[in-house]
Amino acid sequence: MSKKPALGRGLGALLQNSETDITIGSTTENGGNVVGSVSAILITAIEANPFQPRTQFEKDALVELANSIKELGIIQPVTVRKMGYGKYQLISGERRFRASQIAGLTEIPAFIRIANDQEMLEMALVENIQRQDLDAIEVAFSYQKLIEECNLTQEKMSERVGKKRSTVANYLRLLKLPAEIQLAIRTREISMGHARALVNIDNEKKQLTISRRIIKEGLSVRQIEDIVKERRTEEKLLTLKKGGVSDLSFSQQKIKDDLTGFLKTNVQLQSNSKGKGKLTIPFTSEKELERIIELLGL
Predict the structure, then answer these.
(1) Out of 19, 29, 71, 94, which one is annotated catalytic?
(2) Could you give the CA distance from residue 77 to residue 74 in angstroms, rounded to a whole number?
(3) 3-state secondary structure of 265
(4) Helix 204-217 with 221-243: angle, nearest 10 deg
(5) Which region, left, alpha or beta, applies to residue 74 given φ > 0 means left and ψ of -120 to 50 means alpha?
(6) Which domains can be identified in the chain, with CATH numbers?
(7) Res. 107 pLDDT band, cuts 50 70 90
(8) Which of 44, 48, 140, 250 has most Cβ atoms within 10 angstroms of its Cβ?
(9) Residue 90: which of 53, 54, 124 has the closest Cα?
(10) 228 C-beta neighbours (distance < 10 Å), count
């Protein structure tokens, strides 16, 4: 069988973890399959991964994969964890698993591992994040789930998935967009570039108005960036007329965005025409305040 290329430092580190990968020796449990080996397993003995971050599997693509499996077999084994009593649970490879069911296979090659729930969640999420066919919202949800359920900071999580922290922060910001826009991103009516421009608009109604124009008029990312820039210029002029508080400069806006991403809270930065202003870091509970203080190293 051909070997799939490495999926990045995060998954590699997990697969090489001696605490979760028992590959020494050839001990079997009641004559069963060897943990750490690739074995043929009955499809009926495998249950789906409850931590699977992917929620959409394109039917036509699954049928196409199923036809390929009928003709060529499964090239890359799925990965499962041993549950005991001859049962297994998927860690990764759900598309291949589903396509094999469609193809009518009774057995499937699988790499057998032992993992607890948190390690399984990490492995499933990291493996899925590395895929090229995930939409931006699926990636963002995966990042958010890693942070929340595995108790990781953005910095630690970026190390897990082998991505820059700024890249992770950009994806997480997409989850602040209205549900209608998130759905348009999932159906690829709106690109990641469009979405990043829309995030910079504070008003939800304006976000929706512009997103609908993108779909209806086929506006490019550059056009949307220009529209956002024009709107911010207009808002700046209105603000100056009201009380002398200016819009943020490019560097100030970047600082605000970076802090918001790093602290995972909606940081506010205000500056007047003389360069004076204030920085506000909101929190919703004592626990969140402690988390922010820890991140700030205070």
Answers:
(1) 94
(2) 7
(3) coil
(4) 150
(5) beta
(6) 9-116 (3.90.1530.30), 184-242 (no CATH), 244-298 (no CATH)
(7) very high
(8) 140
(9) 124
(10) 18
Q: What is the pLDDT of residue 6?
A: 38
For the question of residue 286 being annotated catalytic, the response is: no
Tokens of 148: 């929340």
Residue 226 corresponds to which amino acid? D
**In the block, which residue shows the tokens 């009955």?**
42
Q: Give the DSSP H/E element, type plus range, for residue 12.
A: helix 9-15
The strand pairing partners of 40, in sequence order, are 109
Alpha helices in 104-246 (DSSP H): 117-129, 136-149, 154-161, 165-173, 179-186, 192-199, 204-217, 221-243
pTM (2 d.p.): 0.46
Query: Confidence band (pLDDT; 50, 70, 90) for 22?
Result: very low
Residue with tokens 């970076």: 258
In contact, 11 and 53? CB cutoff 8 Å: no
Q: What are phi and psi of 272, to 5 degrees?
A: -95, 180
Tokens of 80: 């499962």
- What is the separation of C-alpha 11 from the centre of its chain, rounded to a whole number of angstroms? 14
Q: Across the strands, what pairs with 201? A: none
236: Cβ contacts below 8 Å, ≥ 6 apart: 246, 247
Res. 288: pLDDT tops 50: yes
